[in-house]
């Protein structure tokens, strides 16, 4: 995909401010105490920490305040899962099973081979039920066979190695092995499962899309059901990707139906304004999303009962971060 995400200097500065608050309060912030864009960014980054912990809690030592210090961040405010995994592998509080499985999950082959020597028989019984795809590699001292993995991902033949079901459970780490898949079909299947199950964070979905050519993305979008296209577009309304949302819309405009446009407006209204998730200048974004629409699409959107709120936003000044009384309008609707 030729659309690239480059955070602005303002965004980088806002992230540094938000991180300072998160570290100061040890990631235990009463989010309602913060207003405006900075408050929205703090809330978005706090949500990322919660999502990250939920996916890793079984691989970590008992919860403590040191978690926040080990989490590694991209400068634009998304968690760097790979660097964070490496940081936690240095934690002496991780037991050997946790350390080994974490290495397997992130395809850290050197760590896996080194830690394999210290795995006990009891740990091995547990591990074989969860990451069987590593067994041939470790038992026969071979490298991961990505040609075979690709084939089994394509065919869904998981009887012998369980590779595809691993992809389904391991979508958060998809960007780290996505480029190793050897065929369009295998990459499509992995993204399809990730989108279907909401099991990949927006920034990591973007990283996957950025690794493939435009013709392959066009083929994927032609094959995706409409609700899956909605989910892809929706992902660019999450921090930190909002700055390229309109570019994504323009890139795929010929594949966006009236229903998708209405869904995106409703998402912004209900998931951003109504819930006061104000991590971006959504007033300006709504106006820019609305302006180039065809009269047919605008007429379709105007028929929806929520258009009164869209109209309210369209009539607001660009410099207003949000029409704050919109929440009251919603509550009376």
Describe the structure.
- This protein has 333 residues and is mainly α.
- Helix content is 61%, strand content 0%.
- The protein contains 21 helices and no strands.
- It has helices spanning 9-24, 36-56, 67-70, 81-89, 96-105, 109-116, 121-130, 135-140, 146-155, 163-169, 174-178, 184-196, 202-210, 214-223, 226-235, 245-251, 258-273, 282-290, 295-302, 307-314, 326-332.
- Helix 5 runs antiparallel to helix 6 (109-116).
- The longest helix is centred in the first third of the chain and has 21 residues, at 36-56.
- The chain is globular, with a radius of gyration of 22 Å.
- It starts with 8 loop residues before the first helix and ends with a helix.
List keywords for this structure.
333 residues, mainly alpha, globular, single chain, 61% helix
Short structural summary:
With 333 residues, the protein is mainly alpha-helical.
Task: Please provide the count of β strands.
Answer: 0
Overall SS class: mainly alpha
In whole angstroms, the N-to-C terminal distance is 41 Å
Biggest sheet layout: none
Helix content: 55-70%
pLDDT averaged residue by residue:
82
Shape: globular
What is the tally of helical segments?
21
Helix-strand blueprint:
Blueprint: H1 9-24, H2 36-56, H3 67-70, H4 81-89, H5 96-105, H6 109-116, H7 121-130, H8 135-140, H9 146-155, H10 163-169, H11 174-178, H12 184-196, H13 202-210, H14 214-223, H15 226-235, H16 245-251, H17 258-273, H18 282-290, H19 295-302, H20 307-314, H21 326-332
């Amino acid at each position: 995909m030729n659309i690239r995400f480059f955070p602005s200097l303002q965004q980088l500065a806002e992230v540094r401010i938000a991180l300072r608050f998160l570290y100061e309060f040890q990631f235990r912030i009463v989010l309602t105490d913060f207003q405006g864009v900075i408050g929205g960014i703090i809330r978005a980054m706090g949500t990322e920490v919660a999502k990250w912990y939920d996916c890793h809690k079984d691989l970590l030592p008992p919860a403590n305040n040191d978690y926040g210090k080990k989490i590694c961040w991209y400068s634009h405010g998304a968690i760097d899962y790979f660097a964070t995994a490496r940081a936690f592998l240095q934690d002496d509080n991780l037991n050997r099973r946790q350390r080994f499985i974490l290495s397997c999950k992130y395809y850290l082959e050197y760590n896996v081979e080194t830690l394999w020597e210290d795995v006990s028989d009891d740990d091995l019984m547990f591990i074989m039920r969860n990451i069987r795809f590593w067994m041939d590699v470790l038992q026969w001292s071979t490298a991961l066979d990505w040609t075979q993995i690709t084939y089994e991902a394509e065919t869904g033949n998981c009887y012998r190695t369980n590779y595809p079901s691993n992809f389904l459970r391991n979508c958060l780490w998809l960007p780290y092995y996505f480029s190793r898949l050897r065929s369009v079909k295998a990459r499509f299947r992995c993204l399809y499962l990730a989108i279907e199950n909401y099991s990949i964070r927006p920034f990591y979905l973007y990283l996957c899309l950025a690794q493939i050519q435009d013709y392959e993305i066009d083929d994927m979008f032609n094959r995706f059901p409409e609700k899956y296209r909605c989910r892809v577009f929706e992902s660019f309304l999450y921090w930190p990707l909002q700055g390229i949302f309109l570019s994504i819309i323009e890139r795929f405009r010929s594949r966006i139906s009236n229903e998708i446009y209405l869904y995106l407006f409703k998402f912004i209204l209900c998931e951003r304004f109504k819930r006061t998730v104000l991590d971006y200048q959504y007033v300006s974004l709504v106006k820019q999303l609305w302006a180039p629409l065809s009269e047919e699409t605008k007429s379709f959107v105007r028929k929806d009962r929520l258009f009164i709120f869209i109209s309210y936003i369209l009539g607001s000044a660009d410099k207003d971060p949000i029409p704050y009384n919109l929440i009251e309008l919603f509550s009376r609707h």
